[in-house]
Amino acid sequence: MSSHGLRDLRSVRCRGRRGASCRVTTKTSPLGRRAKLSCKVLSSAPGGSSEVHPEDDELAKLRSENAELRSAVARVLSQLSPEVQGRFNEQYSSLRTSAAAIGEELPAISLVGVLEGAPLPEEAQEEAAEPVNADISTGSPVEAPDEEISPLEPLDSATELPAAFEAATAGAQPEEASEPAEEAAPVAEEEKGWKLTPEGDAAVLQGDDDTVTFSFGSLVDKIKRNLTASASAFSGRKTSNAGLAAPLPPAPMPKAGLSGPSKGSSGQRRQAMSDERAESEGARSGGAKAGTVLVEHPDRSEEDIIARDTGAGAETDPLQPSTQATAGGDIEVDEEMAKEVSQYGGGQDNDPLQPPHSAADTAAGLEAAAASGRKELAQEKEQAEAGPSSSPADVLTPAAELVKGKEHWLYFVYPERPVAGADVAVYFNNNVSDILRERPRRQIHVKFNNWELEGENGCWFDLEQTDAPHDFGADWWRVVVKVPEDAFEMNYVFTDGEGATDDNQGQNYLTLLDSAMTAELWAERAMERLVAAEKKRKDEEAAAREAAEKEQREREETDDRTAAKQRALDLRDSVAYHRQGAVTRLERSPGQVAWYTVPEGLVPGKKAKLLYNASAGPLAFMAPLPSPPSIVLGHNGWLDTQEIIMDRATGVCEEGDWWAVEFDVFPDAAVINFVVKYYEHFDNNEGQDFKALVELDSALGGSLDDFQERKFEEIYRNLRQQRKELEDEWMRKESKRTEIRTVAKAKAMAVLRRQMKHVLFTEPAEIQAGKDVTIYYSPQDTPLAGCEDVYLSGGWNRWTHLKKFGPLKMTAPGEGEHFSATVTVPKNAHSIDFVLSNVPEGEGIYDNRGGLDYHLPVEGSELTPPGLHVVHIAVEMAPICKVGGLGDVVTALGRAVQELGHQVEVILPRYDFFLQSPLLGATQLEAEFDWGGTHIWVSTCVVQGLRCFFIEPANGFFAVNSVYGRSDDAMRFEFFNKAALEFLLQTGRQPDILHCHDWSTAGAAQAYWDSYHLYGLWRPKVVFTIHNAEYGLDRIGSAAYYSQRFTTVSPTYAFEIGGNPAIAAHSAKFMGIRNGIDVDIWDPENDELLPRPYNAESVVEGKAAARETLRYRLGLTGWGDKPLVGVVTRLTEQKGLHLIKHAAWRTLERGGQFVLLGSAPDPKIQAQFNALAASLGGENAHFAFSYDESLSHLIYAACDIIAVPSMFEPCGLTQLIAMRYGSVPVVRSTGGLRDTVFDVDLDKARAAWELEGSSDWERDGLDVTNGFAFEGTDGGALDYALNRALDAYYNDRAWFYGLAARIMRQDWSWNRPALDYIELYYQAMK
Q1: Share of the chain above pLDDT 70, in %
Q2: CB 93 within 8 A of CB 137
Q3: End-of-domain residue from the set 323, 344, 365
Q4: What is the C-alpha separation between 610 and 617, in angstroms, rounded?
Q5: 1100-1156 pLDDT, tens digit each
Q6: Do 294 and 221 belong to one domain?
Q7: Is residue 383, in this structure, part of any structural domain at all?
Q8: Is the pLDDT assigned to residue 846 strictly greater than 60?
Q9: 895 and 818 inside one domain
Q10: Rounded distance, CA 370 to CA 1005, Å?
Q11: Which residue ranges have biased composition labelled Low complexity (predicted)?
């Protein structure tokens, strides 16, 4: 027996209807050879020491049947050839040696092969030359066991032997058995075949000279309800039918939560069982040379077989017997069952002294029993096809009745075969569970159909204690669960709701159901369910969206009403205050009128006249006034003031110097405030101002309360109108943004298709669900180059769809190089997936994109592609903690991926400077836990549309006001990496992707695989991005090793650093993906920091306005037509400091203006630029050594040219932002600068291919170049590019502005990079 064979052992203990037991042990070779099986009868041999009571007729009948069974098997096995017997004994001896090494003793094998102590037929006894109890291989006698097992005693766990074998594999490793010898000469047909049915119709034994087949008889069908197996005493523990546990070491407690769905679906489990059975069938029908005993169930469904073998519902995987909750075939026989056996036992009465039937009688009885069994099987098959017919059991049956005899069971269900659509009661014996025995709470987590279906009442239930007796310390708890109509199996685990879980050692528990639904039918309808679930989800989302919008509208309406009421109240109080002392006519002294109004009571919204007597006040010394005075009017405390020239009044009866003015009373006025002005002289009522009373609307009651109500309605209408106008404006802008994004995304896909066209394309280009698509493939430049035939094999929805196609032989090209094949796209397909080969199947040449396969999107599907869950672990994020481009990438990439339907979250340290951020005002506590020797708080809020989590340890590691710059940065960030992983584990999150960034979070990759992947955080794969390889190369090398895919921020930079030993060793999973910019943040058409918005059509006017504002702000002269050159950068050696200085001198020398925004972390460098500013600063140059976000926006918009002369640049965002604002870039051709800026004179072909997917720019009439580039590192190289840019500005202004408009239209967003990253995520998951 091979060492592999030890792992493949199966053990089944079968207890017959009267209590006899036999253990059947099978061994399946790892190469799929025949199953070999040994059978040891565990009852006492006839004449043994077991006491027999005369009244026990069952025991006598059992022994009679058992004797016949042993005799028949012995007769056949005694005829095996010596070669076969020798090989068998060699393997069995090795097995005994292995078992002895771990303290297990296996019984010896007798001469006849397997049945020790069996009575031999006469011919066999004559042939036997050795004692019965002798080892065939040695001929030495073997001592019998000290104690014989009574057929009525409870048996040990039926899985003890396989458990021992499993452990033995680490010790003795027996050699592989040799191949079977040639088959012995066949016997005559009449001697070869035989069949024996022991009395009672409980079993059938038949065979020939090589094969013995043991089958359950029809009686089993009648008493199948009693075919139960005891559940484990705790997860993974096996027990005997008497409830005596055979302890195994308890499994370690899982770190988090419940176990997920079992590793294999029920369909896979049944398939494994079918495969095992088929292998045995093959051994039997293929003329097995070795003696083989096959144990078979009747011809029943696989569900029935599993039900009998699993008993109380524990999930059973035939491929993993050592981890199942029940022994494979323990059959409990009780007194009731014995009575049934007597009733259906073939007519034998209960008299043990009655002679046995004759052979003819026995044959007749067998035939009758077989006919009865066949009839019942046919009836049950019809019932199964018609659906469940079982009457629902009364699940409220008193617990005391149901738990009788099950005191040592862990759990059982009632009814034993629950019915779909009915209730099922689950009983749990708390005192038997080592895991939950001392816990304060007991719950069950239950779902159906391999954890895919949830019950209508949910999936979490509390168990309630029953009133069942506590015999043998039992403590029974119960819950009643409603089974869905379309369920075929029930999956469940027991838990305390706080992390302690009894889940059958990770295998979970399973009970098969009486249902019309089957695993196969459930799988066939999977896509229908997905479509229905998708529709339901969309309907629910639409309803939720509508409800949220309604709630938002109601909340806004309430807010507006509240604001209007408050403003009306404030106005009422103000009016009441200002109306104090208001009159319609003022007399300064008796008979001397200073002013009055016509009409006497002013009416809001009506015309009125005010007459003023200049001779009755401070202006009297000049009366009569030689020229008209003016009046300054306002209302309600000088609101909406205006100045009006007065006219000479006529028809006034009063004496004096009268002047008049007509005006419209303000609609909401309650008092008119005014003073009279004559040049520098005023009449202001001695500093108190005049107050003319306005009558409140008499139609509304004329009171202040009525005034307040009227003003409330008026203010409320105005607020609603203003809100609507703002919403309409936002909708207009958002609609335009969406249109622009849609066009840009469509173009990105079109460019990608054009770039693939020389190898692969489709007609139509956009594949539509429910329609045909023709795939064209050119094997040139692929692994299939030169192959005459090409075959297409594929599927849908990233291979998850049940439908597949191919292999299809593609049509050879009549013209050109492309083979073709047409397939019909399912309506519920959202992607088409395929590989190509030169053979239909089997060995050949395959083009599968290096193991990644081809995937093309499908439009119009009934299903939305399931989104990925991506978690970024980073120490920077724009705009809340941005230091360099890393922060921009985390935010913009996350937003772009999220817009494509995926879930994106970001984990960051919680720095102290966050406390001053206005963007983090809505932060809330998410979780807290103890880890790493400290307490950790995790808070959360949404930043730029992304859900962010902030790690705040009590040890103060991040109680700082900067991201970098401390001596302990490496240690702090390493702590953060592990704390982020601990947070995911503690909160039960299982993202698909962990995306780590740069050296600061490189350690998260190794920490995940070393400390978290095997301990609960099992799902994620790791993607790592290098933003700058100049820092932390050793950490970068570690992350490259531990990540599934790693990237850098541009293809050229990937080429430049790819030879580094830390990277080169893992180059197969390394690639460059260029960065993009967030076009919503950097948007000149909606930039509030600019003096006026502009786009490509208004670039000249927009940049002129920005230029004027910048010059005014920085004190630059506006005289002359001067080009403006800008630099926005950190002042480090990487950025080409000597070239920046050279650009400043050269720009001024050629009559331009120069602006620099940036600062140097190195004081020496800063001192150099301070000196440069002192030398060049003035009306044509300005140096701003600070970080100023608003000034950076203004510089990008105002400058005609932006210079980026970096020595190396992984990607660079400056040139991308500059082009977004219409500023022409002048760059050194390195890293990402080369991948994004294409020289107007040198790169027309490269630009056409990269930006438009065109292989011939002249043929297609394309010029999409966008800047000026140089390659050297000296001033002369820079002059080559800068001078050409300045010449274009001076010599051909129209062309230069045309270039500015062209680069504004180019898409430098994350549209294309996001698609590349999503594909990279899927690659990492493979």
Answers
A1: 70
A2: yes
A3: 344
A4: 16
A5: 999 999 999 999 999 998 887 799 999 999 999 999 999 999 999 999 999 999 999
A6: yes
A7: no
A8: yes
A9: no
A10: 65
A11: 359-371
pLDDT tens per residue, range 620-675: 999 999 999 999 999 988 989 999 999 999 888 888 999 999 999 988 788 999 99
- The CATH number assigned to the domain holding 767 equals 2.60.40.10
* Number of CB atoms found within 10 A of residue 55's CB: 9
Q: What residues pair up with 832 in beta bridges, in sequence order?
A: 796, 856
Q: Which domain holds residue 772?
A: 760-859
- Report yes or no on 1239 lying in a domain: yes
Are 1016 and 255 within 8 A, CB to CB? yes
CA gap 1316, 540 in Å, rounded: 31
pLDDT of 241:
28
End-to-end CA distance of the chain: 37
Which SS3 state, helix, strand or coil, does residue 881 take? strand
1135 and 1058 housed in the same domain: no
Strand order in the sheet with 585-589: 585-589, 592-598, 607-613, 658-664, 647-648
Do 216 and 127 sit in the same domain of this protein? yes
The tokens describing 357, both together, are 């039937």
Same domain flag for 885 and 991: yes
Report how far residue 200's alpha carbon sits from residue 61's, in angstroms, rounded to the nearest whole number.
9
In 454-525, alpha helices (H): 519-524
448 and 499 share one domain: yes
**932 and 845, same domain (yes or no):** no
More confident residue, 395 or 341: 395
Residue 144 neighbours by CB distance under 10 Å: 13
Considering 667, 693, 719, which residue would you say is the last residue of a domain?
693
| 109-113 own/partner pairs: CB under 8 Å, 24+ apart | 109/38, 109/135, 109/136, 110/134, 111/78, 111/136, 112/74, 112/77, 112/78, 113/38, 113/74, 113/77, 113/78, 113/80, 113/85, 113/88, 113/291
Instruction: Please tell me the distance from the alpha carbon of residue 1181 to that of residue 1154, in angstroms, as a whole number.
Output: 5
Residue 454 one-letter amino acid: E
In Å, how far from its chain's centre is CA 1154? 50
* DSSP state, residue 565: H
**Amino acid at site 1074:** R
What Cα–Cα distance (Å) separates residue 1319 from each residue in 469, 852, 853, 1073? 61, 9, 11, 11
CATH no. for residue 658? 2.60.40
Residue 374 maps to a domain: no
* Residue 194 belongs to some domain of the structure: yes
Q: Give how many domains the chain has, as a whole number.
A: 6
pTM of the model: 0.65
Non-local CB neighbours of 457 within 8 Å, separated by 6+ positions: 481, 482
pLDDT digits (tens, 9 = 90+) for 802-826: 899 999 999 999 888 899 999 999 9
pLDDT recorded at residue 40 = 36
Pair 608, 599: CB distance under 8 Å:
yes
Q: Would you state the pLDDT for residue 1326?
A: 84
**Any idea what DSSP says for residue 621?**
G
